[in-house]
Amino acid sequence: MSEHSDKVVARVEQAHTDVADQLRRADTKAASMLPLFGGFLAGVVALARGGLPPVAQALLWLAAIPMMVSVLLLLSAVRPRSVEGARFGFARFAGLVERPSELLEQFEAEESATAQAVDVCRLSVIVRAKYADVRRAIDLLMVGVLLFGVAMAVTAVL
């Protein structure tokens, strides 16, 4: 077992805190956007059922597609991401519920900084995936809103 300097341990601990904060931020951001995106989608579907010109109705239904996908992406972002049989984190701890002594032995055998560094990497992958889902959801909503605007312009002209 190699020892890590206090400086390295402090940086790993700070990175762990930062990544955990980003994970909470990503979940909060996605969860707060769901009602807004869902509202847009519901509005588009409600308007598409009305007595609008066929071209406008087609554009509204077309607008609903990226909006629906954006809602699904946000749901994906807030969906918990844990792996059954994981080697780290709470999923690993839950697997040792009947054998807490093994957990204590594992903690003693691991270097604290190394274990935290592994957790930082694992959480970073999850955060990156969540933010990618949120970014794609926003992009798709913008496409849907643009199509909605075109549909409203067509309605005004016809």
Automatic annotation (TrEMBL):
It comes from the Bacteria. The chain crosses the membrane at residues 33-52, 58-78, 137-157. Pfam families: PycTM. Keywords: Antiviral defense, Cell membrane, Membrane, Nucleotide-binding, Transmembrane, Transmembrane helix. Residues 13-153 form the Pycsar effector protein domain. It comes from Lentzea kristufekii. This is DUF5706 domain-containing protein. The keyword ATP-binding does not apply. It is found in: Cell membrane.
